[in-house]
Structure formats: structure tokens, C-alpha cells
Amino acid sequence: MTAADRAAAAVDVAGLVATARALVRIRSDEGRETPAQEAMAEAMGAAGLDVDSWSIDLDRVTAHPACATEIERTDPVGVVGTLAGRGGGRSLILNGHVDVVPSGDPAAWTYPPYEGIVADGRLYGRGALDLKGPLVAALYAVRAVREAGVRLAGPVHVQSVVGEEDGGLGTLAAILRGYRADGAVVVEPTGLAVAPAQAGCLNFRIRVVGRAAHGAVREEGVSALDRLVPVLEALRRLEADRNARLGGGPLFSRYATPFAISVGTVRGGDWASSVPDHVTVEGRMGLAPSEDPDDARTEMGAALAGVSEVDAWFTDHPAELTWWGGRFLAAETPTDHPLVITLQEAAEATLGRPVPLEGMTYGADMGLLAGVGGMPTVLFGAGDIRRAHRPDEWVGVDELEAMARTLARAIVGFCGVAEAD
């Protein structure tokens, strides 16, 4: 049996599930991430890793031009566990986050969102899929390498980060602390496809103004809600034009709109019987790996300026565009890079079938690792992203097992085996 096969066989599936369930039970939304980070540090120590846990310097991180954040944090914690290599091999980072989005109405869940229930072969709960289950699977892959007695030539680092959901503050903090490697895997859900490309996104806010009037004489006012319609139509035209022009190539071929422009919130008006004189929408603009974010910002600004050609109101009252909060850099790694090849081969050995190379349309920390850290990076993880950010979030236990066994093989293949092994 090869060293890679020994490592894959050594994955403790029961321990993986138990640890993932325990982590799901720790609420880590809205900036409350430290207890989950403490649990991950403890799990890393129990796995035999050297643990680096530190208080993130918020002043330093937020001053970096690549920093994006929406949630106020007072004392965030970074955690990295390392399995050292004996020298002469490549280094690898496995990156995943403990922060989660809010769970919403508990009544919408079949199982309570913070109990980590396993039913019918699925782990349910907020973060089960995005991203606590896959993060724990990555840790158990490294643990399996160690317990199989495989002595790596190069080191492997497991990064447990905060702040991914609102822009990647924790990953940026790890980069600034000095963590670099010859390759990195962000363990976001890819359905066990290997994803060497990731779209980026920018958060935007658009404010449309009107003229208030009593609702009984609404014709004497100008409804900002009505004026919003041509703005939304302009965004749809821009989205269609950008996706037709940027395409995305073979990695994004299964998506009709890989770089979507989506409005997520609408707020406006002050009184039910008044004509609304202001409406504000917020959303996200998808970015292609091939484009400069500043070019995308310019395109949206031009599209909004053009609304005045179809509605004269905007000549003197232009829509106000601002960029705010979370943003994710797009990234792409060549498909012939050793990390991509090694991970694909490891996945195929585990699953016993061909494993596709795909691009992912969501934003993640791949952009920071590649764009700021300068590391070849791929996305790979259990589960379907469509199950995230919604009630009854779940990931299959078999998916977590396959992911951990794949990563165990990939660690050995990429980092190499010390000659003494």
C-alpha cells in the first residue's frame, strides 16, 4: 500500500463527524467566532499539530488595501495548525472558515440550526456545509496522514479563519502573519469537483431619489420606487452584456450567468401614505477572473449614467452609486499546475470516477490567497453550495469522508514523503 493510500485509509470518519457536530453547535454568526476558534485550536492540538493561536491586529489588517469587512469585531482570533515536514518537499495550506451567516427563522428548519443533527446520512445545521464540516474534514485529513505514520517532506498548515462571509479578514490576517505555501486549497463546497478558478464579487449600493407628496395626490410627487425600475433594467442589460463578453471559458461553461449582478435588499420611503422620495438597493456584482475590479466599477457607473437617456428625471437626479462592505477577488490557477493535477488525481483515486475541473461562481478566500499571498490556489470541498445560506443546510457524511480521504492523498502527493518513510 502506498503512503497516500495508507493516509486515506486512516481517516477517522466517526471522529470527523463527532468533531463537526460539536463545532456546528457553537454559534459563530455576526462576529461571535472566538469560541469556535478555541474549539478548532483544541481539535488541532488533539490531532498532534503545532498550534498557532493569536489575537488579530485589527488596525494592521483593516489598513490593508485588500481588507473588506462588514461586521464589527473587537478581538478576533486566528488559528493555524501545522504538521511539519522533514525538508525538501512542497508546502501546502488547507484553508476554511468558522464564521457562518445567520440562521434566520428557526421555524423554517426541520432540525434546529445549532444542534448538529445527523439524520439519513446527512449532517444538518448552520455551518454544516459552509464551512464547518469541510473544515473539520481537512483537519482529519492531516490527522490521518500523521496517524498513518507518513512523514511528509514538506509541511501542511490547516488555517481556521474568521470573517470569510464578509470579505476574508481572517485569511488576510494569516497572510500578514507570514503564512505562505507552494499551494493552497480552500475547502469550500465544490461538489468534490476541483475548481482552479473562482469568480469574484463587489458589494454595491444604489440610491434613487424622487419627490415626496401626499399619497392622496401622488401624481404631484415623483415616486423613487417607480424611478427604480429603469435602474434595475439597466443592471440586467449590463449583466447580459458582461456575461456575453467575458464568458468565462470552459471552466464556467455549465453556468448561463457565471458573473451575476443580484440585488439583495430594498429599502425606501418614510410613511405609508406618502410618495417615497428615496429608495436604496444593495447587491453584489460578479467579477470574472480575467478582469480588473476597477473596470467593473467603471462599467456599472456608466450603465447607471445611461439611465438618463431613457428617463429624463435622472438628468438632474442621477442614481448614486457607492461600493461598500464585502468584496472578493477573483482568481485562477492554470489547470496544468501540479496542485491541480495532484488534487484531481487524488479525487479520482478516492471516488473511482473522473473528476471534473470547474470554475465556481461564488466569492471565497481563494482570491486573497492567490492575489495577495501569491499562492497557486484551488477550491475543493464536500457538498453543493446551493444548500448553503438557507434553512436545513446539510452535507452528506459520505461527502465529508470522500473529501477527507481525497485531501489525505493530495497532501502526501503534493508535499512528498521524506526519504526515511
Defining key terms:
single chain; 16 strands; four-stranded antiparallel β-sheet; 12 helices; 421 residues
What does this structure look like?
By secondary structure, this protein is of the alpha/beta class. The protein has 12 helices and 16 strands. It has helices at 3-9, 13-24, 34-46, 58-62, 128-147, 169-176, 224-246, 293-305, 313-316, 338-351, 366-371, 397-415, and strands spanning 50-55, 77-83, 92-97, 118-119, 122-124, 156-161, 183-186, 194-198, 200-209, 261-268, 278-287, 320-328, 331-332, 357-360, 377-379, 394-396. The strands form 4 sheets. The protein has a 6-stranded mixed beta sheet, with helices on both faces. It is elongated, with a radius of gyration of 23 Å. It starts with a helix and ends in a 6-residue tail after the last helix. 53% of the residues are buried. The model has no long low-confidence stretch (mean pLDDT 97).
Q: What count of helical segments does DSSP give?
A: 12
Low-confidence residue ranges: none
State mean pLDDT (0 to 100 scale). Answer: 97
Sequence of strands across the biggest β-sheet: 1-2-6-3-7-15
β-sheet strand percentage: 15-25%
Number of E-state strands: 16
Mass-distribution shape: elongated
| Secondary-structure element order, N to C | HHHEHEEEEHEHEEEHEEHHEEHEHEEH
Summing up helix and strand content along with how strands pair, one would put the structural category as alpha/beta
Biggest sheet character: 6 strands, mixed
What's the end-to-end separation, in Å? 13 Å
Which range best describes the helical content: under 10%, 10-25%, 25-40%, 40-55%, 55-70% or over 70%? 25-40%
**In angstroms, what is the radius of gyration?**
23 Å
